[in-house]
Amino acid sequence: MNLYIVGKGAVGTYLGDLLRNVGVDVCYAPRNLHDVQPYDADVAIVATKAYDTAAAIETLRKAIAFPQKCVFVSPQNGVGNEERLGQAFGPDNVVAAALTTPVDRDRDGNARPAKEGGLALAPTGANAYNWLAATFASTGLTVRVVENWRALKWSKLALNVVANASCAILNVLPNRFVHFDRIFTLEIRMIREVRAVMQSLGLNPIDLPRYPVRGLFAVATLPTPLSRTLLAHTIAGARGTKPPSLLLDLRRAKPQTEVDVLNGAVAAAGRDRGVPTPVNAVYARVLNDIAHTPPLWAKYRERPDQLEAEVEAEVKRAKVLVRGHLNEG
User: Fold this and answer.
1) Which CATH number does the domain housing residue 24 bear?
2) Which tens digit of pLDDT belongs to each residue from 125-137?
3) What is the tally of structural domains in the chain?
4) Contact in structure between 160 and 274 (CB atoms under 8 Å)
5) Is 3 in contact with 16 (CB distance < 8 Å)?
6) Which pLDDT value is given to residue 318?
7) Can you tell me the distance from the alpha carbon of 167 to that of 176, in angstroms, rounded to the nearest whole number?
């Protein structure tokens, strides 16, 4: 099997190393589009950040010699990437993926799994791609194949948003964030919003390798004090002092983050479906503002009261809009 990978970060390197060890020929895309050469790939993995998907598609258009016989796999975070790949190469050629193995880099820059996890796969079209699942499983990676690719990606989103945007905005690590009781209550409301949006979309949560998403939603529906206690213990133990992805982006002064395909996607779907999502909407808006205007971060660093105030103001704005629509009716 010939594999082409766009994105040589931790995820791309980790998957490439696993497959190379079982005899797969692996080729990584160069950073510069002008340096891309045609490659006869059976599989292409898009391992870029979601905001680089458009550029990845341009690379793939130039690189993949026979796209009609290639399957395009997206283990990217957030929602919307598979749709874009499907528009470019056809939905029957796209497989959604969710990698739940946390991957870090060692001192030599090599990708190493931090904990156990696995890979879930879901074709977006009519083709089953059992051979692809078997190839990944031959590496020793736990592999699960699911039918509903949208439910798969939204279930992974539910994991990605926990202690991510909130930690980034406040510039705190998860083990400290869980002690901010009032903000952690907002986090539970945020998870409940994700669940409500998924329900409105007709999507049932899917348990992913090592991560019981249905359990996460079940805990979030408990009375808030109990939910806060259980989730705080889980988050502190699982993530501890590891900076979440959105916090890393802000600390690196990146002008773009993946918040639009995470919390922003929840807020957008909520607007379309008439589901209130004030916490996700505020998280997405504030984090984008900070990314575009870094000095604004000083307003929120270790100041949970400011973030809480933004959410409450959003709730009031939403109520005013609803009253306005009712009066117009």
Assistant:
1) 3.40.50.720
2) 999 999 999 999 9
3) 2
4) no
5) yes
6) 77
7) 9
